[in-house]
Amino acid sequence: MSINKEKYLKITEELKDKATLVAVSKTKPIAAILYDLGQRDFGENYVQELIGKQAYMAKDIHWHFIGHLQSNKVKYIAPFVHLIHGVDSFNLLKEINKQAALNNRTIDCLLQLFIAKEATKFGLDENEIKAIMQKADELKNVHIRGLMGMASLTDNEQIIKEEFKKLKTLYSTYSKEHPTFNIISTGMSSDYKIALTEGSNMVRIGSLLFGDRNYSRFP
Ligand SMILES: *Cc1c(COP(=O)(O)O)cnc(C)c1O
Predict the structure, then answer these.
(1) 134-171: per-residue pLDDT in tens?
(2) In the chain, what are the helix, strand and coil shares in percent, each to the nearest 5?
(3) Where are the chain's structural domains?
(4) Distance of CA 156 to CAs 151, 161, 179, Å?
(5) Residue located nearest, by CA, to atom 11 of ligand 1
(6) What confidence tens digit (pLDDT) does each residue in 177-202 have?
(7) Which of 1, 43, 84, 169 has its CA 20 to 30 A from that of 150?
(8) For the domain with range 18-211, which CATH number is right: 3.20.20.10, 2.10.109.10, 3.30.70.2740, 3.40.630.30?
């Protein structure tokens, strides 16, 4: 497989001191080349693929789960997952808490705010996030570290900007109250530059690094 090494180095330079790069390796064999260049944060959005890769890759990798997580699959990733990005219900959070406790650990999570125009995307609205934040202290084995969002798939930069701004505004209200609420995960290959100007401090980049995906193997 081909890895765009120049692009990787350019992106890490752009992100320096601003944002953590999560290299999204979904549907791709893991990029040992990126690991050798120092990359330690990798993101996956299929549970099977994540556990398959985790089993044979270096143990100092931080594995991010960035997809839509089903409650019945939490147990498979609970022993090792570093950060779960797309939490979109209190029930899911409760299950993560339960599985984290069974593994004697605390799992960091982000709540996904729905910011896009597309109804197909997952996520919570502001009131639902508020309700979860009020109850989250009951759950001793999960730690809500911030927010995640996905902007609309559009060429209209203004729309994307406004969606990211919405995320940043909500993020700011909670980050003021909670010092460890300090992650804002937003920005992908097509819009990470905009995300950086709108306050993102964690970007999830796939196709720019790994080339276009072929989904045919993945239902
Ligand atoms: C696939 C994916 C990405 C990366 O997308 P690219 O456009 O390939 O950079 C980021 N975030 C999520 C949630 C994804 O599913």
Answers:
(1) 999 899 999 999 999 999 999 999 999 999 999 999 99
(2) 40, 20, 40
(3) 18-211
(4) 11, 9, 34
(5) 204
(6) 988 999 999 999 999 999 999 999 99
(7) 1
(8) 3.20.20.10
